[in-house]
Amino acid sequence: MAKKPKFYVVWRGRQTGVFDSWDECKAQTHGFDKALYKSFDSKAEALKAFRDKPHEHIGASPGTAKKTPNRLFVGEPNADSLVVDAAWNTATGDMEYQGIYLATRQRLFLMGPYANGTNNIGEFLAIVHALALLHQKGSNIPVYSDSRTAISWVQKKKANTKLDPTPHNAVLFELIRRAETWLKTHVFANPILKWETQYWGENPADFGRK
């Protein structure tokens, strides 16, 4: 009888996401410091788990209540990393994004504002911008974002936005197209990690306009 296939969620590894085989999962986690991953019986279950925090699944038996996490489990962010964030003006619809080097808080890029955007699009473009910049420098340091949606889009190499293109945001949609093309034509080893705001405080790349 054929063995039922497993699906693997990698929350922390060289690349994060849902993988269809152990070999793919192992490639992202073997030798990676403090890798977080787990297998699931169905892809739907794995996709749902990827949207959750890892402590809600790792070490928990099926049907058990979710455990309250602690800072020790989550750990600390890697200072040798690039952190990105985006800001969206609800009044004007303008969006901008930036990236900083965490160890020194030096801003490495600031882009925008772009008309008629969304925060998710900004987060997506920020991650890809960071990956492209690090690729040029030959650096494999991690990239942190506090947007699970944007991280998922990068993993899928597709910005799954529901925003309609208009003459006002044509520049933005051209940037999205270029970002998707870059993801499909380049290989990178930079881990894309979730910034754990609950434990580490506000994303250092935040624009501070809340």
From TrEMBL:
Cofactor: how and how many bound: Binds 2 metal ions per subunit. Manganese or magnesium.
Subcellular location: Cytoplasm
Any coiled-coil regions, as ranges: none
Keywords (A to Z) from UniProt: Cytoplasm, Endonuclease, Hydrolase, Magnesium, Manganese, Metal-binding, Nuclease
List of residues binding Mg(2+) 2: 123, 146
Cofactor(s) recorded in Swiss-Prot or TrEMBL: Mg(2+); Mn(2+)
Catalyzed reactions: Endonucleolytic cleavage to 5'-phosphomonoester
SUPFAM superfamilies, alphabetized: L9 N-domain-like (SSF55658), Ribonuclease H-like (SSF53098)
Binding site for Mg(2+) 1: 85, 206
Molecular functions per Gene Ontology: metal ion binding; nucleic acid binding; RNA-DNA hybrid ribonuclease activity
Pfam families noted in UniProt: Cauli_VI
EC number: 3.1.26.4
GO cellular component entries: cytoplasm
Domain of life: Bacteria
Residue intervals of the RNase H type-1 domain: 76-210
Protein family membership: Belongs to the RNase H family.
Protein task: Endonuclease that specifically degrades the RNA of RNA-DNA hybrids.
Protein name: Ribonuclease H
Species assigned in the record: Rudanella paleaurantiibacter
